[in-house]
Amino acid sequence: MNIYFACSITGGRELETAYQQIVGALLADDHEIPTSLLAQSEALENEGKLTPQNVYQRDVNWIKKCDVLIAEVSVPSHGVGYEIGLALQLGKPVLCLHQKGLKVSKMITGNSDPALTIKDYSNVEEAISQVQTYLLNL
Predict the structure, then answer these.
(1) Class assignment of domain 3-136?
(2) For 62-99, what is each residue's pLDDT tens digit?
(3) Number of other CB atoms surrounding residue 74 within 10 Å
(4) Could you give the angle at which helices 78-89 and 52-65 cross, rounded to 10 degrees?
(5) Does residue 112 surpass a pLDDT of 90?
(6) 3-state secondary structure string across the chain
(7) Virtual torsion, Cα 52, 82, 91, 134, nearest 10 deg
(8) How far is CA 58 from CA 14, 52, 106, 128, in A?
(9) How open is the CA angle 61-81-115, to the nearest 5 degrees?
(10) Distance CA 12, CA 2 (A)
(11) Domain-wise residue ranges, the chain
(12) Is the Cβ–Cβ distance between 135 and 1 less than 8 Å?
């Protein structure tokens, strides 16, 4: 399955290890993750070398081609919010994950689109399990 994994880049990288573990599990399950480079430690530096137009066009194309968008939304990010909205507008299924106890934007939690699923998790292993279950049930 072609999965667009969305995560915070310029908004904060404090969950980088979690991003890497989730992406690693998806890759181990033989999914295609064009955004896997965004989970890597070099993401902020590498993205800084691209023009905003290049990033926008690349990401929009990846979203158009994906089967599903999975977003880790614990760290607020304008870009991730935009990507979620675009994916839903295009009719893509979207899974939003966040750490238990953290506040998530009401623009996400208040969205009743049937293509949107929101799950919280206590640890990365639980997040990975939720992703795998979600994908099996698509």
Answers:
(1) alpha beta
(2) 999 999 999 999 999 999 999 999 999 999 999 999 99
(3) 24
(4) 40
(5) yes
(6) CEEEEECCCCCCCCCHHHHHHHHHHHHHCCCECCCHHHHCCCHHHHHHCCCHHHHHHHHHHHHHHCCEEEEECCCCCHHHHHHHHHHHHCCCCEEEEEECCCCCCHHHHCCCCCCEEEEEECCHHHHHHHHHHHHHCC
(7) 110
(8) 24, 10, 27, 26
(9) 75
(10) 25
(11) 3-136
(12) yes
Query: CB under 8 Å to 133, separation ≥6 — which residues?
Result: none
The answer to whether the Cα torsion of 27, 50, 97, 89 is positive or negative is negative
The one-letter amino acid at 134: Y
Q: Is 90 exceeded by the pLDDT of residue 38?
A: no
State the amino acid at position 99 in one-letter form.
Q
Task: Write down the pTM of the prediction.
Answer: 0.95
Locate tokens 């299924």: which residue?
93
Residue 7 to residue 28: CA distance in whole angstroms = 19
Q: Other C-beta atoms within 10 Å of 127: how many?
A: 23
Q: Among all chains, which residue has been given the structure tokens 């639980």?
A: 126
